[in-house]
Design a protein that fits this description.
Layout: H1 9-25, E1 31-37, E2 40-48, E3 53-55, H2 57-67, H3 79-100, H4 103-133, E4 154-158, E5 161-167, H5 169-197
Antiparallel strand pairs: 1-2, 1-5, 2-3, 4-5
Helix pairs in contact: 1-3, 1-5, 3-4, 4-5
Length: 198
């Protein structure tokens, strides 16, 4: 019965590699928002890491002043304080489950990772919503009924700026780790059902 609860060596290797990849995500850009307008033909970009903002943050803050959007400062977001630790915990959890090789912990990890992904995306959407709707009423440029919420993913026209939002390399690594974890879990669940039925 003990052997029936152990996961395949391939899946353990996937988890170990996934854990190391997640630890690397801490230092990689997770998301990017690109802005394009006639006066900025080279474009502007905002890079979101687990612990900081990068790209042309000062230029974007200067432009946002005119429409009353809040300026972006990493210290204003608690997410940048806790996110590196949370990603690190999940990276170590991947490695621990890979080393332990127990099917039940694989399922627990999948559930926890899915929950983390959902909560993170809801929080990101809320952050973008507040950023685009909580405007300074004394801003130099006011368009009645206009909100400036950037897209969470995809393209959106915001006045004369086109905003394009997409995962960056860290985000794609995160997604890939989630898909590989789901693959391992589903495959192991099928293997477990076959062994129980035999």
């Amino acid at each position: 019965m003990e052997n029936h609860q152990r996961i395949k060596s391939l899946h353990r290797a996937i988890l170990l590699i996934g854990g190391m990849a997640l630890l690397a995500v801490i230092a990689l850009p997770i998301w990017r928002i690109e802005l394009d307008a006639a006066q900025y033909p080279e474009g502007l970009e905002l890079l979101i890491y687990s612990y900081k903002l990068d790209g042309q943050v000062d230029v974007i803050n200067g432009l946002n002043h005119y429409i009353g959007m809040k300026t972006l400062h990493a210290e204003d977001f608690i997410e940048f304080t806790v996110l590196p630790y949370l990603i690190g915990i999940y990276g170590l959890a991947f490695i621990a489950v890979g080393l332990l090789g127990r099917r039940k912990w694989l399922y627990v990890l999948l559930g926890a990772f899915l929950l983390f992904g959902i909560v993170s995306m809801v929080d990101f959407w809320q952050w973008l919503y507040n950023y685009g709707h909580d405007l300074d009423p004394s801003a130099p440029i006011k368009v009645p009924g206009m909100a400036y919420q950037p897209p969470m993913i995809g393209f959106k026209q915001l006045l004369n700026f086109g905003a394009f939002s997409i995962p960056d390399i860290g985000g794609w690594v995160f997604i890939a780790c989630g898909l590989l974890l789901a693959y391992c879990s589903v495959t192991e669940w099928r293997i477990g059902n076959v062994k129980q039925g035999s």
